[in-house]
Amino acid sequence: MKQVLGFILFLLTACARIMPPPGGPVDRLPPRLSGTRPDSLASFPDFKGDVEFQFSEVISENGQPNFGTGTGGLEKLVILSPARGVPVVKWKRDRITVHPREGWRPNTVYRVELLAGVRDLVNNESKASSVVTFTTGAPVPTDSLVGRVVDWTSQRPAPQALVEAVLEPDSLAYRTAADSSGRFRFGPLPKGSYLVYGVLDVNRNSKRDPREAFDTIRVDAGRDSVGELWAFKHDSTGPRIQAIARNDSLSATITFVHALDPAVKRIPRDSIRVRLLPDSTPVAVEALVTQQLYDSLFKPKRDSTAKDSLRADSLKARRDTTKARPDTVPAQRDTVPPRPSGIPRLVTGARRRPAETARQDLEPLKTKPPLVDKMILRMVDPLREGSKYVVEAKGVKTVSGVVGNTRFTLVIEAPKKVEAKKDSLKTKPDSLKAPADTVRP
Questions:
Q1: pTM above threshold 0.70
Q2: In the 3-class helix/strand/coil scheme, how is 190-219 assigned residue by residue?
Q3: Domain shared by 186 and 41, yes or no
Q4: 222-258: pLDDT as tens digits
Q5: How far is 82 from 167, CA to CA, in rounded Å?
Q6: Is pLDDT of 304 > 60?
Q7: Among the four 41, 96, 210, 315, which has the fewest Cβ within 10 Å?
């Protein structure tokens, strides 16, 4: 019996959760970072321990345990670079310890960043991040990189995008995360040239995965400005048509699998061939252009000199409301005291509200044209209903710079025959009418 009670007590103890003591005021403050180890911007040639982030209270393990797969609650908040894989992250009540799985390399600059998101036991979340930068014998770093990551598909800044700076020629990759407006100030970093990547880290694993959208630029030694990184999905395959949809009798929309080179607004006519099946009869093509160019070339323009009769009639019927009205608001007295002569007026710029600033930081950018995956095919003669066409385009260039040929079959459905409905108002025979006497006398 004692053994059973002891086993039950062990299970209850193992399943217990650390909770704050009852009573007292409600804790609404997030955990505060009280210190780090080792000291930042220092050199430790024989460093063998852990990097520690110490907090002023007991913190939570953030839900998922840390098993080295990068999916743990605290693993997602730690970016260690350079490192070959997911670092070893451990929770120790009021501390978080970090070290690379392969061990510390000599003569290397290390950067350990703890992102915002650490929580205490009552789920208060920290909004501040912290960075520890130290060396294991290399010179103390002084350089930095400044830039912004943009999602080219939406033309908007990419919040929390992954920024990876690969030092050449050592191929040491240093990583950080952009802020809520896609901007980053990355440093201090070792001196040298960098290949900088801006990645849309969809799964938040702080890694540049093959299928994630990214952009890259080379930054020479001595420079700090990266500029804008316009991330898009790269693909080494050539252009392919996904679908063709008829718009009207003379045009159809061609949708491609990949986004096209935004600098190309028109495909030359000699690179387009349309044939009518089943005899493969050539059909004349007028143009294959983007939607914007199509609207400017073929959309009917409204006559600016034509008068709108309805608007004119409505304006005539209106009464003249522009006559002066008596001022019902008395003029306010000038409460500003007179300015002494010889003292210039102080001009202050209007301050933007934080919400307005955040909204403007996420507005679409216009420094590059938008990505498109559609083009409009314009025919010389109307498309025949109930027919099939083979559309071929040569020399189409994707946004990844791959040039190729593609073809697709356009099917023009025949109009459906609408059967005439029976007249429901037609007089029905009188069912009560006596039937004719079919019995002969």
A1: yes
A2: CCCEEEEEEECCCCCCCCCCCCCCEEEEEE
A3: no
A4: 999 999 999 999 999 999 999 999 999 999 999 999 9
A5: 10
A6: no
A7: 210
